[in-house]
Design a protein that fits this description.
Length: 327
């Protein structure tokens, strides 16, 4: 009797994982990944996403096929690429590109589940009804966190104590930057600083933007979140260094390109977390029922080579808080 009980229990234990695998093994799901950047520029993040999917039991070519569509920096291509993913009948779309990818995906389909990634303001842009109850076919991860831009302004002020005039580089064609700009305007008031808003909607406008910044005598630069600025990061870093402008960016890659500082959500962590949303949706969850999550892990990155080139001494109080220091 004991032996029969043992064999029966063992069979149950063996059958459980097999049943779970069979439950999803009968279908190969399609995941669409839509982005504005060049694919090779975000490869480390894509690797994190695929690795996280693998840890959740999803393997490319076995039970999922990942369809990558990147616009190579051309915003006007996003609509066609999103429509292409819809024609492929993907089961879920992971939309990157600072909110622009999500907008294109939602215009292409209100039925296919969409997981947004790093969206600056999903509620303010009208993408979802609320973070807690998104409604519709969109869920995912927001890059917005209360006082995030305010924190960037404060750190830049601490790094440049005598700062009285700060330029803000924005892309006026990106509606998701409105909330960031409002936050920057609020943040400078108690610090007694003036803001200079400078527009660069295309790469060709960047030289004009920096000429205006230098002409008006700004002492530092805040760069708002935009795929254009990410793609043009090397050029922006070169102009900032040449103009002796300490600049605060929003992600590590811009500092690695030569800008002074960055503070914002850890991108690798965000891409890893996006895989959990995709996993839940493929297992039957509805986007409307999955609250949009805000960043939980932030990083401060400082480029000391750039500080030296600018003749700037970073205060120890700021250096001690840095997660990464580029020497």
């Amino acid at each position: 009797m004991r032996r029969r009980a043992f064999v029966s229990g063992a069979l149950v234990l063996l059958a459980a994982p097999l049943a779970a695998e069979a439950q999803q093994g009968g279908k190969v799901y399609r995941i669409g990944v839509l982005g504005l950047a060049y694919r090779n520029t975000v490869k480390p993040w894509l690797d994190e996403f695929e690795h996280a999917l693998g840890n959740l039991g999803w393997a490319q070519g076995r039970n999922v096929v990942i369809e990558y569509r990147f616009a190579d920096g051309r915003q006007e291509r996003l609509a066609d690429l999103a429509a292409e993913l819809v024609r492929l009948r993907v089961d879920v779309i992971l939309a990157a590109g600072a909110g622009l990818g999500a907008l294109a995906a939602q215009h292409a389909s209100t039925a296919i589940p969409i997981v947004v990634l790093n969206h600056p303001d999903p509620v303010g842009s009208g993408l979802v009804a609320s973070l807690a109850r998104p409604g519709g076919n969109v869920t995912g991860l927001s890059a917005f966190s209360p006082d995030l831009v305010g924190r960037e302004v404060q750190l830049l002020k601490e790094a440049v104590p005598r700062l009285s005039r700060m330029a803000v580089l924005r892309n006026p064609t990106n509606p998701t930057q409105l909330s960031e700009l409002r936050e920057a305007e609020i943040a400078v008031r108690p610090l007694g600083m003036q803001l200079q808003i400078v527009d660069a909607p295309t790469p060709g406008e960047l030289d004009h933007a920096f000429s205006a910044i230098i002409k008006e005598g700004a002492g530092a630069l805040l760069i708002l979140r935009d795929p254009l600025f990410f793609l043009e990061r090397a050029r922006i870093a070169e102009r900032a260094t040449k103009g002796r402008l300490p600049a605060m960016a929003y992600t590590r890659e811009l500092v690695e390109a030569g800008l002074l500082m960055a503070y914002g959500p850890d991108q690798r962590d965000m891409w890893r977390r996006s895989a959990t949303f995709v996993d839940k949706i493929l297992k039957g969850a509805k986007p409307a029922d999955l609250p949009i999550e805000q960043p939980t892990k932030f990083e401060l990155v400082i480029n000391m080579k750039t500080a030296k080139a600018l003749g700037l001494t970073i205060p120890p109080s700021v250096l001690l808080r840095a997660d990464h220091v580029i020497e």
